[in-house]
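Most newcomers find our protein records easier to grasp once they have seen one. There is nothing in a record beyond a sequence line and a structure line. Getting from the letters to the tokens is the skill we practise here. An example says more than a description, so a record of this kind follows:
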Amino acid sequence: MKPAALRTLLLALNGAEETFPFGPETSVFKVGGKIFALSALDAEPFKVSLKCDPETAVRLRAAHPAITGGWHLNKRHWNTVTIDGTVPDTLLREMVEDSYDLIVSRLPRRQQLVLDWPGTRE
């Protein structure tokens, strides 16, 4: 996956926004004011950090050398993925969606409804 495709994927999620609180080199993607992804899109190697369920995080790290504990983040809850072609794009998309869902699941129900989040549907 290329940086532009990752940015498009992240911003396609309902309510997602790109901010630059750490400077112009680091894109911080938020929903409801909460971070669900960080990436220096122009960096080499290209990486993205995503929130992750702790048990899943450990399993993913064991299965993929390109997935490590979140760089400068709580390693129990964040993974950093080096996007070098060894992690399938389908898995990366799932990780992005899971990160987004983890954040949205903790937002007030009113915000979840505005985002039309599937977790609020019966």
